[in-house]
Structure prediction request, 723 residues.
Amino acid sequence: MKKSLIICTCKVAGLLLLLHTAALAQSDEQIYQKADALLKQMTLQEKVNMIHGSSSFTSGGVPRLGIPEWVMSDGPHGVRVEHGRTYKDSVGVNDAGTYLPTGVCLAATWNPKLGYAFGSVLGSEAAYRGKDVILGPGINIIRSPLNGRNFEYQSEDPYLISQMAVGYIKGVQDQGVAACVKHYAANNIETNRNNINVELSERALREIYLPGFKAAVQQGNVYTLMGSYNKVRGEWATHNNYLINQILKKEWKFKGAVISDWGAVHNTQQALWNGTDVEMGTDLSLGEKPDYRKYFMGDTVLALVKNGKAPEYLIDDKVRRILYVMLKTHVIDKQRSRGAYNTKAHQQTARQIAEEGIVLLKNQGNILPLSSSIKSIAVVGLNANRPQAFGGGSSQVKALYEITALEGLKKLAAKGTKITYAKGYNIKRGAKADESLIKQAANAAAKADVAVIVGGSTHGYDYSKWSDNAYDAEDTDKPDLKMPFGQDELIKAVLKANPKTVVVLLGGGPIEMNQWINSTPAVLQAWYPGMEGGNAIASVLYGKVNPSGKLPMTFPKYLSDAPDHKLGQFPADKDSNNVCYFDDIYVGYRYYDTYKVEPQFSFGHGLSYTQFAYSNLEVQKGVSNTTVIFTIANTGKIAGAETAQLYIHQQKSLLPRPKKELKAFEKVYLKPGEKKQITLTLSADAFQYFNDVTNSWITEPGQFDIIIGSSSRDIKLKGTVSL
Ligand code: BGC
Prediction:
């Protein structure tokens, strides 16, 4: 089909979906009337059936009233491989779908429109697969570079997370499927996640760990939220009175349902009183023939209500919330649009996100883009030839296909280019360098014009022992920040054989590069770039795509530089299971900048094949908003995109504040020679901080620096405003 025809067909489909959604729109008042009418007809038993799992990924319905089971599925970057009611049920289901780049790659695009596009693909495929709730986005703060789930999450910065998550949620929910923002809250360590207790200041909670969730609720109108495994200040997060009742439901006015993480409920009364609406878990814990009435929110609830130990209105509130979401998303009247699966447009979105999310970290002597006259490339590294979709834990996706970097390069290289492949290393935790593999790789590199090493971290495939053979995986953190599987030795040997070596890193975050970074001319961070990842990597290497990704997290030089290691605690204390966030608000660049620690690559960093010039900063103070205007010009020879970042700094404050806090950004696309005026608006909230002495957000009068950067450390313009 011609490109114009595809665009036209997509536009018509989008318009039809909008008309369909508008025709079905109902006010909250109408929804509550319907919910209450249903609730009135239910027996206590029927209500209780609705507040706990009825299989691994469903909670109970009331068939007598036409309420079906509520069907959920992971996960953040694709509709998960089918689990069915039992594992046997999944046989024969068409569950090979679109595998999007993971959350951290999405955030690296710094393009909220792609957040929406990402969510739309996910929502559409979830609708097609008959899912009512999609368990994503995962938006926990990237506090430590070691967290095993950083690849699913987005950033160390709460503002960037908020901007990306809101689009994602709207994208999913506009397809008639409920999003489920997770994991609420302070779930920043995987090892021993079911037992650890997080102690943190109110200021860190409010300024760093909660804003993403608040934006999800208040700007994204997210329909469901998942309570996390850990404890916060001694109380399980999934039934935490302060987090759920006080903040989420009372302060933020969340109307939807709180779903427990799988197996995160520990106590019936606490779950009843402290805001958990649905208890989910796996069937494994209940044996071969699971009896879900044994869940904490099953038969025990019936007994407590019957014996007068718990009031029925608590259960009514939970069911009303579930019905609210079910009615909003047309689970009961089955009017939801059908969705679509594995379309070209979905695959194209996956590719665009990968292309915009890949970050060019270093490009000395403009070794990249590769010239089309290159005659031979030695591709080295297991990650060049290994799919990743099925790894990592609950976010596993059975991808319809997954283009590896090796395949992508073979497709894009000019006819006659000789491409050799050497795997260079094996995946095994703690394994030393395999000298014969290194030798093979170095020999291949010596014979080629250019060597491209694709390495970094990896996911495991084997679900039952993923913590054993993977570095980016759920339920386990990385042991250290070193290049795994002997890759330091591999890279050094390949560089020695051929100094024209490009390193492409896959993984959910930073890795120590000290042994080779100075002698490596070019490095790309490609995250887990999804099913079209190999095409995207090749396009960036060959310059078909001008890279525009920026780091959503700081890359430290050494693990010991990271704030959670330097100031705070990571992992939790082995005896008490407590973990104290002494790093407080100094997470990511807030720490590196304030404490003057030089990172390997700073937050917001990312190079382009063109250059941008910033000029003409104007800061205008209005009655309620501050407007910041400046110009960006593309001064190079090719088209490209730049993300301008606005940080503020309060010159003198009562309580200490970080040197920089991101408050706005904009990504602009510019042809060579083109310039654009950028206008960013800061509301009064942007200047506030949380004062935990008065327990409130405050705006202090005084001078604020307005800092415009191409990264958090590459500052282009500076102004001030006085409030
Ligand atoms: C994970 C969640 C996931 C759930 C269901 C849990 O182990 O923490 O993120 O949604 O399982 O698979």
